[in-house]
Design goal:
82 residues, alpha+beta, four-stranded antiparallel β-sheet, 4 strands
Length: 82
């Protein structure tokens, strides 16, 4: 999957499109030092979005914004893997 494009919205949110889901809009919100998926405006033209897809989207966007370190060090990830 690739991040196709993204743009800032009001209140610091980001809207993004991904290659695997080109007809769906993914809305991200900031939390601490990274962005997370807040909402997916899913299109029935796209495949169903799985949890693994959401995590990959978060990683791709945070990497694009140079926030990957904050994303990888988040508390919920550490509880699962540390």
């Amino acid at each position: 999957m690739e991040l196709l494009d993204w743009t800032h919205t009001r209140k610091y949110n980001i809207k993004a499109h991904f290659s695997k889901f080109p007809h769906s809009v993914v809305v991200f919100r900031p939390i601490k030092d990274y962005y997370f998926v807040y909402q997916v405006n899913w299109s029935d033209k796209d495949p169903v979005v799985l949890r693994e897809d959401l995590e990959e989207m978060e990683l791709l966007l945070n990497r694009e914004l140079n926030l990957e370190d904050g994303y990888l060090q988040r508390k919920s990830r550490c509880e699962k893997k540390c």
